[in-house]
Structure formats: structure tokens, C-alpha cells
């Protein structure tokens, strides 16, 4: 049972860290103009682009930790 909780925790962190790094890389490429369109030049482009990315990261962390906590509860974690 303990190994299942450990696997749950490792999976949780993998589901948080890997997508965050991947989407952060893509956001930086878009910021610099390597994606579709022009580089972000105005302050509004930069603030809204990175702000929305941060909001998405926080929502994703909340979802993953909530599901992980629910799984821990089902496994009988203290």
C-alpha cells in the first residue's frame, strides 16, 4: 500500500513539473516570436501572456493535487 502512495506522489509531481516546463518553453518561444505571429512587444502582450500562463499553471496544480489527495484518501492515507 505504501508503494502505491509513493507512486501517486511521484506521478503527481511528474504531472505538475513536466507540463509546466513544456508549456513554459512554448510560451517563451511565442514571447520571442518563434511561434505563430510576431514577438510580444507591448507591455500588455507580455503581462497578459505570462499572466494567463501563470493562472493556467495554478489551476493545473490545484487539479492535480486535488485528484492526488482524493487517491490518497481512497488508499487510506492518514
Q: Per DSSP, what share of the residues sits in E-state strands of 2 or more residues?
A: under 5%
Return the domain count.
1
- The structure class reads mainly alpha
Average pLDDT, all residues: 88
User: Percent range for helical residues?
Assistant: over 70%
Q: How much is the radius of gyration in Å?
A: 17 Å
Q: Can you tell me the residue ranges where pLDDT is under 50 for at least 5 consecutive residues? A: none
Question: Quick one: overall form?
Answer: elongated
Largest sheet: none
Number of strands: 0
Strand/helix succession: HH
The separation of the N and C termini measures 12 Å
Number of helices: 2
Notes on the protein architecture:
- It is built from 2 helices and no strands.
- It is mainly alpha-helical.
- It has one domain.
- The two termini are about 10 Å apart.
